[in-house]
Amino acid sequence: MSAQYCRIRKKVYEKFSHNAEDLKRFNHMEEVVKMALYLKDRYGEDKFDIDYEKIKIAGILHDYTKNMSFEEAVEYLTKYLNNDGLEEAKKAPSVIHSITAYYLVQEELGIADEEILKAILHHTTGSPNMSPLEELIFVSDAVELTRTYEGVEEIRKRVYEDFYKGMLYMIEQTLKHLKEKGWYINPKTIETYEYYKNMIENKNKKQGENNGIY
Ligand SMILES: [Fe+2]
Ligand SMILES: [Fe+2]
Question: Residue 100: how many CB atoms within 10 A of its CB?
């Protein structure tokens, strides 16, 4: 383990080692690191030309503020967001920890790498045109091996078969779940879905042209 990752992992452990619930969260962050490294190696350098260190740091930090309460999170964000931004953030309590983590890792750990910061910020909703690191953390968060929600095996299987198709299926399932529950759907998730759906369709079309189908 490199010195920087080692230092950061220790800090995260100190923050998440005081009770069973937090220890479970720490374990999840480690599992995200493992899954992200596995997917990098599975798809190789062509798809994920990313430094191992960056993957590990983004993975271990993505839920850095998961143990902050909703009230604390809103209070903390008044420092960074204007009223509109704050109101938007309050609409999606399950997403707010990615915004607080984006700021707090800069303050407490001096993280300045834009790619790592964006991977943390977008790990819940995704974002159109993500960097490979953002995509990797977004997907690994949902399919790491200790996840047990309904349908996870199918999502994981598809991610292993074809990264982008698997990711699109994963977002589709999320949207379906949110609609069924009648919960708030973050516009960013829909934008992400549309962006990657178009990307896959265009890629298929191009492949068809190359094969002389069109
Ligand atoms: Fe999270
Ligand atoms: Fe997570």
Answer: 21
Ligand 1 centroid distance, CA of 76 (Å)? 17
CA of 62 to the centre of ligand 1 (A): 6
- Which tens digit of pLDDT belongs to each residue from 42-68? 999 999 999 999 999 999 999 999 999
Task: Compute, in angstroms, the gap from residue 122 CA to the centroid of ligand 1.
Answer: 9
Domain holding 204, by residue range, is: 3-210
Give, as residue ranges, everything with CB less than 5 Å from ion ligand 2.
63, 141
CA 59 / ligand 2 centre spacing (Å): 8
> What is the reported pTM?
0.94
Rounded mean pLDDT of 106-130? 97
The DSSP call for residue 29 is H
Q: Residue 153 is part of a domain; what is its CATH number?
A: 1.10.3210.10
**Total number of domains in the chain:** 1
Q: For residue 101, which ligand has an atom nearest its CA?
A: 1
d(CA 97, CA 197): 27
Q: What is the CA(29)–ligand 1 centre distance, in A?
A: 9
DSSP 183: -
